[in-house]
Amino acid sequence: MSMNIKPLSGCFTCRLRHVKCDQNKPTCYRCYKAGRECKRQSPKIQLRFKHGQNPSRRKGKSGNPNIRLRGEGLDFFRDDDVWTPVPRRLSFIDETPTLIGIYSAGLPPSPGVDTDETAYESTRYSPLDQTDQTDQNTTTHDGLAMRPDPCSISEGSASVPNSLSPPQITKQTRGSVDLDDIVVHDNVEEDVSSLLAADQILLGRSGESDDFYHPPPSNSFLPLTSQEAFLLQLYRNKMGTWMDSTDSERRMAVEVPERALKNPILMYAILAYSSRHLARVADFDCSVSDGYHIKCLELLIPALSRDVGDDAELLAATCILRLFEQITVRHSPMTDQESHLTGSSAFISTQESCANRGGLLEAVFWLFIREDIYAALYNQRPLKADIWSCNVEINFDSGETDCCKWANWAVWLAAETVTFSFGPGGDDKAAALADWERLWSRTEEWRLKKPSAFAPIFVQDRDTSSGKYFPQIYHSQIWHVVGWQYYHLAKMLLLAHKPARDRVGLRFWRDLQSLQDEVVRHFRALVGLCLCSGQVAPRYQVCMGVLACGSWLTDANEQTELLQLLERCDSENAWPTATMINDLKEEWGHAKQSPFQVI
To answer: Where is this chain compositionally biased, Low complexity type (predicted)?
Structure first.
């Protein structure tokens, strides 16, 4: 009697992984794509199955239904048990917490131990499926936002290539991932590559049992993709930290990422900035940041026009996008349209006393003021913000001991000084001199009445014989450093823009040389504070000092060390300094050819 052998449904490799096989020979598509050996069963080999859970075969060799021998049934039923009728068509429902969370978020399940990693990646990230994925992988946020995968942006939004797909994740031994070396070493690309190859345990995307994790709420941005989780962590550990240079509560680094998990506008702003920063310091596709930026604008503009959403979160997103805007115009800062800076200014003008309301809104306000000061110095213009309507309350005699508040007061004095220095002025020289004297007195009052905590923990003057061309000034906290830097910046501008200065006379050049020495002294202190801090935020203020009076530095060794610092700002921190460096070299070259130092 001949036996008709039913063909197998697929290769052993696919069957063991519980995925569908296309039965292509000699290698199926899934095995080919994953680089696995495509094993097949020969029809001559007979398979034997043990009926471990078949109650109809419960009477084994023992002959006793109450005695189970090895290899016999695991579950037994009495002869008088009533069997419930089973319909021909069944639907199975998995109500585990993990699956409920996945369905609530509207996202495909995360790859686990028994899931085909290749199938997961091809389902979520394949460019061929992006059109379908866009409609399926979405959730709503208070009726405001849709959350499609940034990798599947429609052609109508922007021309973003398919290279938006995230990096491939390879399995490695679990361990802690340290971001401290991303933007401070020369081998940045190696650091980033190792991080991108880290395990997907970030933010709940784990290959182990999901019983340890609660399902995310329905209005959450979770679960993130591996790329999104990495970029969010990069923001939290790097960029967000230096944004909090005058905030001991670290709201930009801690509170903003937490809020972003429920606010797609804030999340896309963070992802856009982090990915653009990464593209500047490592080998990362810059089109990824363009995609996130477009999605953020698609949500932000309607929210601003309809006055929908949290004021602090909208302003935070706009300020983060301003930083994205600044590092985007790397080689041609003059093309900076300052669109997001203008948007932040317009937003601030509609609020009441942002500087005194506390919480995230106040922290973002001071971030905006620092951004506005930088842009004003670069373009030699007043601030976009109307400083007279911001209602910043400064009282040096209030007994205030919060050092962060005192640091912000120094920032505000610098903002007023920039507005005075590059403002329209007028023919009333007496009024201009009175304003100058008021600002000079206020900066001196800040220096004399500041808390004792602003005292440096170590000070040493510059020593050219030992190669110390800038003074060494150490402080215990970053806000002390930043506060002093803005104080020195205000002093530099006031010295350089004092009205009613004598333009002729026998003492003109002597007074001019004395003025230059005083300005350079403050500039050296500003740079020395940065070099001793070892942090990123003070470099931001050094660039401001260069924009204000960098050309006044005449010592060749100081010039060399300053240029090296500016180059590190560009290569390590993604801050665009190439044009600034070229301008400095040109100015210093002209200064060497002149018999006098031109001011």
So the answer is: 129-140
In a domain, 519, yes or no: yes
**Given a cut of 90, is residue 169 above it in pLDDT?**
no
Taking every pair of Cα atoms in the chain, the longest distance, rounded to a whole number of angstroms, is: 125
Residue 517: CB partners within 8 Å, gap ≥ 6?
Answer: none
User: Quick one: three-class SS letters along 80-100?
Assistant: CCCCCCCCCCCCCCCCCHHHH
Phi and psi at 463, nearest 5°, equal -135, 95
**Other CB atoms within 10 A of residue 457 CB:** 9
The whole-chain average pLDDT of the chain stands at: 76
Q: Which residues pair with 145 in a beta bridge?
A: 141
Confidence at residue 457, expressed as pLDDT on a 0 to 100 scale: 97
Who's near 264: CB < 8 A, 6+ residues apart?
A: 141, 144, 145, 146, 147, 221, 295, 299
The two structure tokens encoding residue 303:
């929210």
Phi first, then psi: what are they for 472, rounded to 5°?
-100, 115
Q: CA torsion 347→353→358→362, rounded to 10°? A: 40
CB-CB contact of 471 with 525 (8 Å)? yes
Q: Is the pLDDT confidence value at 301 over 60? A: yes
pLDDT of 355 reads 81
Residues 552 and 516 sit within 8 Å (Cβ to Cβ): yes
Asked, for residue 578, whether it belongs to a domain, the answer is yes
Give residues with Cβ within 8 angstroms of 335, minimum separation 6.
329
Give the range of the structural domain holding residue 522, as residue numbers without chain letter: 403-599
**Residues counted in the chain:** 599
Q: Rounded to the nearest 5 degrees, what angle is found at the Cα of 278, between the Cα atoms of 315 and 379?
A: 55
Put simply, whether the predicted model's pTM sits higher than 0.90 gets the answer no
Report how many domains make up the chain: 1
Instruction: Give the span between the Cα atoms of 548 and 531, in whole angstroms.
Output: 19
Q: What pLDDT, on a 0 to 100 scale, did the predictor assign at position 207?
A: 41
Q: Helix, strand or coil for residue 459?
A: strand
**pLDDT for 37:** 83
Answer whether residue 113 is part of any domain.
no
Structure tokens at 79: 């002869």
Backbone dihedral angles phi then psi of residue 140, each to the nearest 5 degrees: -105, 155
Which strand (E) or helix (H) includes residue 523? helix 508-533
In the block, residue with structure tokens 């010295």: 495
Beta-bridge partner residues of 458: 474
- In Å, how far are 75, 289, 395 from 54, measured between CA atoms? 8, 57, 84
Per-residue pLDDT averaged across 9-34, rounded? Answer: 79
- Tell me how far apart the alpha carbons of residues 548 and 379 are, in angstroms, rounded to a whole number: 10
Cα 598 to Cα 13, 506, 516, 545: the distances in Å are 77, 17, 10, 17
Rounded CA gap, 418 and 439, in Å?
11
Q: Which tokens in the block code for residue 217?
A: 């709420």
Dig out the tokens for 492 from the structure.
């530099």
| Torsional class of 467: left (φ above 0), alpha (ψ -120 to 50), beta (otherwise) | left
Q: Is the pLDDT confidence value at 425 over 90?
A: no
How open is the CA angle 356-544-233, to the nearest 5 degrees?
A: 65
Distance CA 289, CA 276 (A): 5
